[in-house]
Design brief:
mainly alpha, globular, 67% helix
């Protein structure tokens, strides 16, 4: 995929650093919250990560030297990890089982919305570092390759997702949608969560981690958080074989395009297939003509 303006920080990032230790502790809180579902383990990991970050930051106060030779002070690992920790705590406060009643929709809206809004507000008005941004258009017009990739996403989703959801029975992790009202609620819910995924996991977690680590390290760390959330949401059984490359791909696309609009479009196209598969699985005979499984 052709690269747009580089997302790399101004200062040269070391290939390895002790900052990986607190970042890994904070990100491992996600599987504790969303896979193991043991809150106290997640709280302990977040606390340990922030404490280690404080120790490392105090010991590593020397400015970095970018390519032009003029030293700059690195961004605060404590502040950036605290923003990820706040988001994780807010999301972990609610059960993530997919439900379509009014109360569940409201609960999701408040918790997921807060997980994006609260770190953004803290970053902008408390820390005043503008570390979290939502670059809608990024590098400008989409290339022919990017448009082709959108079509490929639909084809890959059509080939893979019905087989995954139906043969593994994970579609049962979502409520039965057999009325127009429930189908409409599912459509809105799947799309809204898909947009939120990019706002939190990519524009918040990945972007904050990218300030401290080379691309591949930041991408693996955000993938741990992303995939853990999707597990509790319902992508279980052998779902990580799909969600791990998907999360890594979304980080790569954002790094190359710097376009929230593009990563959201990719995600929503994929989720459109998810929605159709769930309707198909819960209503045999309705969409049999559309899928191979």
């Amino acid at each position: 995929m052709p690269a747009s303006p580089s997302a790399a920080p101004v200062a040269t990032l070391p290939a390895w650093s002790w900052r990986l230790v607190p970042a890994l502790l904070v990100c491992l809180a996600a599987p504790a919250f969303f896979v193991l579902r043991i809150p106290w383990v997640g709280w302990a990991l977040l606390a340990a990560g922030l404490v280690v970050a404080i120790v490392i930051e105090r010991a590593d106060a020397a400015p970095r030297t970018p390519a032009d030779g003029e030293p700059v002070r690195p961004p605060s690992i404590v502040r950036d990890l605290s923003l990820i920790a706040v988001g994780l705590l807010i999301v972990s406060a609610i059960p993530l089982k997919a439900e379509l009643d009014n109360l569940s929709i409201l609960r999701f809206a408040v918790a997921l919305g807060g997980a994006v809004a609260v770190p953004y507000v803290i970053s902008r008005w408390a820390y005043r570092d503008y570390a979290i941004r939502f670059p809608w258009r990024g590098g400008g017009r989409w290339t022919a390759f990017q448009w082709s990739w959108l079509a490929a996403v639909l084809v890959l989703g059509w080939l893979i997702l019905p087989f995954y959801f139906i043969t593994s029975d994970v579609y049962l992790n979502w409520p039965v949608v057999d009325t127009p009202d429930l189908i409409a609620r599912l459509f809105v819910g799947v799309g809204a969560v898909g947009i939120w995924d990019e706002l939190f996991f990519i524009c918040t977690c990945f972007a904050l981690l990218r300030r401290h680590f080379p691309f591949w390290q930041a991408n693996v760390l955000q993938m741990v958080v992303f995939v853990s959330f999707l597990w509790e949401l319902g992508y279980q059984a052998w779902g990580p074989l799909l969600t791990i490359p998907f999360a890594l791909l979304m980080g790569y696309i954002f790094m190359k395009t710097r376009s929230l609009a593009y990563v959201v479009t990719v995600h929503l196209l994929f989720d459109a297939v998810v929605f159709a598969v769930l309707v198909h699985a819960h209503n045999p005979g309705v969409l049999d003509w559309l899928f191979l499984v």
